[in-house]
Amino acid sequence: MHSYDRYEIQEAVFVRWANSLADGTVRELSDILDTKFLSIFVKLITGDSFVSSGSRLQDIQNAFRLVDNGERFNQISMNEIADGNPRAICFAVWQLIQIFWKRFAPADVRDQKLAEALKDWCVERAQRFQVQISDFISSWRDGYALNAILLSYNPELFSMNQICDMRAVDRIEYAMSLAEHHVNTPRLLQPKDFSSERLDMKSVVCYLMVLYLSLTNKESSPQESHSSEQQQIESLESSKSSQSPMIINQKDIAISDSQSTADSGALSGETAQNEAEYSTSKSFEQFPSAPSSRRQSQQAVDVS
Predict the structure, then answer these.
(1) DSSP secondary structure of 124-149
(2) Which domain does 134 fall in, by range?
């Protein structure tokens, strides 16, 4: 097995995330660091157009400086990027994902680290249905956590009892299908990925980020009378009626938000963090466990 095979799921997730912003123009991992995608990303983050230097590596460095004026990208080797090293590219894309979070997350959480903010949200939402979450991998394998989060936005949507007899892979498919069709959350992961030994924390966090933004997106107009959560509840409720659901697109979130601050300049970034800071144990340390449940999210997965 190639040493980079363990990044297979992560690479696929990052490519799908990039395509959710760039209308399917990214075919493989290295395309995320091509000038075409970086031009789109710089525009979303800063509101400014990106002018190519004619050199791919120089464009990468210029784009990094425009979207983050801190030291986030200092640990990245341009030689490894030029050589197409998947690990180096994945690390660079992970930085872009965190920059995207800081730019488009609600104001009250955008200064939190991505994993920590999502941890707080997931635990609070899932514990309403006695579903315990303790990490970003094993707690998601049985499918209860994803369903509990969606159900927390509309308890009338379905009953947890309805999914108890499903296989784990079917429970995950059920939740991801709801999220995809009713709040337009891109399917960055596949249900079978959750049972894979190659599933990694960053892949799950990336999917949860777009789910969070879909469910909590705020209208660009400050005069909007309805809260974002109420809008999402109404959207999920529409799945039980003949009305068409309100669709929220990740790219639309980014475009509408970036247009409102087109002249604000490049995003001011936080100091670069080592990958270890985003490990599962770090993300959940010193956080009280959710109440124990008959639906323990660490239980064995029945995906056969």
Answers:
(1) HHHGGGTB---SSSGGGTTSHHHHHH
(2) 114-217
Q: Say whether both 173 and 124 belong to one domain.
A: yes
CA torsion 250-253-256-258 (nearest 10°) is: -90
Rounded average pLDDT over 223-230 = 38
Please report, as a single letter, which amino acid is at residue 36: K
Structure confidence by residue, pLDDT tens digits, 17-48: 999 999 888 999 999 999 999 999 999 999 99
| CA 19 from centroid of its chain's CA atoms | 13
The three-state secondary structure class of 112 is coil
Say whether pLDDT at 231 is over 90. no
CATH of the domain at 125: 1.10.418.10
Could you tell me the pTM of the whole model? 0.75
Of the three residues 184, 217, 250, the one that is the final residue of a domain is 217
Question: What whole-number distance in Å separates Cα of residue 84 and Cα of residue 89?
Answer: 7
Contact indicator for 122, 133 with CB cutoff of 8 Å: yes
Which of 74, 104, 134 marks a domain boundary?
Answer: 104
- Identify the burial level of 132 via C-beta atoms within 10 angstroms of its C-beta, where 0-12 means exposed, 13-18 middle and 19 or more buried: buried
* Counted domains in the chain: 2
Q: pLDDT digit string (tens) for 81-106? A: 999 999 999 999 999 999 999 999 99
| Within-domain flag for 282 | no
